[in-house]
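Hi C.,

You asked whether I'd gotten around to modeling the 195-residue construct. I have! Everything is below, sequence then structure, no commentary in between.
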Amino acid sequence: MTEPLTAESILDTAEEVLRRFGPAKTTVVDVARALDVSHGSVYRHFGSKAALRDAVTRRWLERVSAPLAELVDGPGEASARLRAWVHRLAATKQGIAREDPELFATFRKVTDEAGEVVDAHVAHLAAQLTAIVASGVEAGELSVDDPAAAGLAVLQATAVFHHPAHADEWRREGLDGQLDAVLDLVVDGLRIRPA
């Protein structure tokens, strides 16, 4: 007896098919063929190719952001957690690009087409940074009028180190030192100034 078809098994197979054929050449029929089911069976779980693509993208982005959650409410000063958060995000994305360049290239193309999913991911990341900044304000460590604006600003200020559009720059020598220099400026700008 074969395993029942689930959304997860479809997404697992869709990732492999995307890796093999790339996003431009991958169809729902290819995914169904790899699962040895009819394309109608796949459509029962995902109503369109775009819905399947968005679900694969969402799952990949969740794997990227999940390890960051423990730093949001974790112990320690907000500035140290903020630094660790940005470093972990950069290391995760750069690691995927280095260790599995085919998959990274595929997801880079797929995310270009999944605007709403990517927008939700960016909003989620900014919300995590906002929570870190807000905790620093509450603890009297940071002085920021608008933690949400500051959280988004941190994400944007460090984009060259984690945004896939900059992946070609990640091979530069001394990149970690450059990230530390940017974070020094960012954190210094968030700190309380003596009166």
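If it helps when you're writing up: Residues 115-138 form the longest helix (24 residues).

Thanks,
B.
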